Amino acid sequence: MKKKTFTLALFLCAFAIFIVAHADLSGKWAGKLIAADGTKYPLLYNLSLVGDSIIGTVKSPHGEFPIEDGKLDIAGFHFKLTVNGLDIPHSGKFYGDSVGMDISLTGSGVRTTLVSAALI
């Protein structure tokens, strides 16, 4: 029984590593952040994968900001931006043709969907 459990666990780990290795977030992703007052802010994420690290920039009407502490793992990915001294955590999941993104802004969360900028 232990051998079957170990084999299954090993298989699941190998499968998870395969999925993470083939998640291709690299490229330009566009979306909109909709504020509580209804204001829409266009966002452009320029992402690159280096191993399990995410690097790149995010462009908004407030400027272009480097991605910091970007990591890709089994649960998805996460990184932060620093805008005017304020850390803005991001987390999300890659779905092949889109990216679901959660952004934490001063204690409240905002969800947005990004699509390939090549499609816009």
Q: What does this molecule look like?
A:
With 120 residues, the chain is α+β, with helices and mostly antiparallel strands. The chain has a single domain, classed as Quinohemoprotein amine dehydrogenase alpha subunit, domain 2 (Lipocalin), CATH 2.40.128.120. It has one helix and nine strands, in the order αβββββββββ. It has an eight-stranded antiparallel beta barrel with strand order 1-2-3-5-6-7-8-9. The chain is globular and about 55 Å long.
Count of the domains: 1
- The secondary-structure element order is HEEEEEEEEE
The level 1 CATH classification is: Mainly Beta
The assigned CATH architecture is: Beta Barrel
Protein name: Glycoside hydrolase
Organism: Mucilaginibacter pocheonensis
Keywords: Signal
Short description:
The protein has 120 residues and is of the alpha+beta class.
Please describe the structure with a list of short key phrases separated by commas or semicolons.
eight-stranded antiparallel barrel; 1 helix; 120 residues; alpha+beta; 9 strands; Lipocalin; single chain; globular; 59% strand
